[in-house]
Amino acid sequence: MKIGLLGFGTVGEGVYELTKQQENMTVARVLCRKDRSLPDAAVTHDFADILQDETIDTVVEVIGGLHPAYEYVTDAIRAGKNIVTANKALMAVYYDELLALAAQHGVSIRCTAAVGGGIGWLSALERARRVDTLREIHGIMNGTCNYILDSMTRLGLDYAEALRRAQELGYAEAEPSTDVDGIDTWHKLILSANIAFGVSLEKADVPVAGIRNITYDDIGWFNRHGYVCKLVGTARRDGEAHVQPTLYALSELEGNIPANFNLISLDGEVAGRQSFYGQGAGRYPTALNVVQDCADLLEGKGFYCPCGGKTAVPNRSRMVWYVRAPRGPLPEGPVSEQWGEGKILEASVAEMHRWLKDHPDAFIAAIPDRVK
Amino acid sequence: MKIGLLGFGTVGEGVYELTKQQENMTVARVLCRKDRSLPDAAVTHDFADILQDETIDTVVEVIGGLHPAYEYVTDAIRAGKNIVTANKALMAVYYDELLALAAQHGVSIRCTAAVGGGIGWLSALERARRVDTLREIHGIMNGTCNYILDSMTRLGLDYAEALRRAQELGYAEAEPSTDVDGIDTWHKLILSANIAFGVSLEKADVPVAGIRNITYDDIGWFNRHGYVCKLVGTARRDGEAHVQPTLYALSELEGNIPANFNLISLDGEVAGRQSFYGQGAGRYPTALNVVQDCADLLEGKGFYCPCGGKTAVPNRSRMVWYVRAPRGPLPEGPVSEQWGEGKILEASVAEMHRWLKDHPDAFIAAIPDRVK
Question: What predicted TM-score, i.e. pTM, was given to this entire model?
Answer without folding.
Answer: 0.95
